[in-house]
Amino acid sequence: MIITTSEKIEDKKIIKTIGYVKGSSARARNAAADVFASLKNIIGGEVEEYSRLLQQTRDQAVERMKQDAVTKGANAIVAFRLQSSTIAQGASEVVAYGTGVVVED
Q1: Are 77 and 65 contacting, i.e. CB atoms less than 8 angstroms apart?
Q2: What is the 3 state secondary structure string of 32-46?
Q3: Beta bridge partners of 47
Q4: What number is the average pLDDT over the span 35-56?
Q5: Structural domains in the chain?
Q6: In angstroms, rounded to a whole number, what is the distance separating the alpha carbons of residues 85 and 18?
Q7: pLDDT bucket at 41, cuts 50 / 70 / 90
Q8: Are 87 and 36 in contact (CB under 8 A)?
Q9: What pLDDT, on the 0 to 100 scale, is given for residue 80?
Q10: Out of 3, 13, 24, 32, which could bridge 95 as a Cys pair, Cβ 3.0 to 4.6 Å?
Q11: Which neighbouring-strand residues pair with 2?
Q12: Cross-strand pairs, 78
């Protein structure tokens, strides 16, 4: 499936607009990651545990968006965006969304 942040796909003709497609994932930190994060706050540097957690959350949200698009009959997504928010202390949600379209093969 083609996914792009632009409103067009170069060398492809959009023949039908399906509409809004989305996927989301919410994840909470774990105690082990919090311990490592506390140490990083003292010595500095990337908190790799959180980076991995957020990457997994983004990946899952995108996969769910793709599934939503396929279910609705789309074979591509334009105007793709990601949004994240804190939904509770220690928990974040990532939403992936865009416009599902059908493009000529």
Answers
A1: yes
A2: HHHHHHHHHHHHCCC
A3: none
A4: 70
A5: 2-28+56-103 (3.30.110.70)
A6: 27
A7: low
A8: no
A9: 98
A10: 24
A11: 76
A12: 99
